[in-house]
Amino acid sequence: MGTLPASAEEAVARLRREVGDIHQELVRYRLVVWTAGNVSARVPGHDLLVIKPSGVPYEELSPRDMIVCDLDGTVVDGELSPSSDTAAHAYVYRHMPHVGGVVHTHSTYASAWAARGEAVPCVLTAMADEFGAEIPVGPFALIGDDSIGRGIVETLSGHRSPAVLMRSHGVFTIGKDARAAVKAAVMCEDVARTVHIARQLGEPRPLAQADVDRLHDRYQNVYGQPGAAR
């Protein structure tokens, strides 16, 4: 175990509270069951991340349980073992410097699309707003090393979607911070469910690319209050 730099202590303490608390949003929106799923956040100004411990029930999580790791996934501070997905999160942070938060869920409808190895087509204005495109499918990869992280980065690099469906696994989302990544996970499940239902009635009609571009630009740059999170 490494030593937490004194200059990072304040930011780490804040993120331990934030990351610990925001896991409850995964429960609230029914994106996880039992101990599956995780949220992490990059520590600003440091090559560190804060992530959920492995196998701890959501109702028992507290800020002190959150684990601090470096961007190789090595534990720097914390008494418990980090999430089994830590290597994937760390790889994303190493290779996508604009990312400040990563979320993983096995939410039902989105994971059903992942099981089929099928992207969720952009057929809703809400999808254009949040994702700016289809929600893509990443390659199959096993837990245990950074293979999942590599698949996430390869799939999302150059793509407007903050969400990827890892084949036969589940959802990974990215954001400027942990809350933005959680929002993307919530929206991913919502549109995956809606498009699934639409397909029971017929084939959904894709949006024109020009409309997708206009909707995405408006939502990202105009919608909401100035300075407020979208």
TrEMBL record:
EC number per UniProt: 5.1.3.4
Taxonomic source organism: Streptantibioticus cattleyicolor (strain ATCC 35852 / DSM 46488 / JCM 4925 / NBRC 14057 / NRRL 8057) (Streptomyces cattleya)
Catalysed reaction, written as an equation: L-ribulose 5-phosphate = D-xylulose 5-phosphate
GO cellular component, one term: cytosol
One BP annotation, GO: pentose catabolic process
The protein, known as: L-ribulose-5-phosphate 4-epimerase
EC class name: isomerase
All copies of domain Class II aldolase/adducin N-terminal, residue ranges: 17-196
Highest taxon listed in the record's lineage: Bacteria
InterPro entries named in the record: Aldolase_class_II_sugar_metab, Aldolase_II/adducin_N, Aldolase_II/adducin_N_sf
PANTHER family (alphabetical): FUCULOSE PHOSPHATE ALDOLASE, L-RIBULOSE-5-PHOSPHATE 4-EPIMERASE SGBE
Required co-factors: Zn(2+)
Keywords, in A-Z order: Metal-binding, Plasmid, Zinc
Molecular function terms from GO: aldehyde-lyase activity; L-ribulose-phosphate 4-epimerase activity; metal ion binding
Matches recorded under Pfam families: Aldolase_II
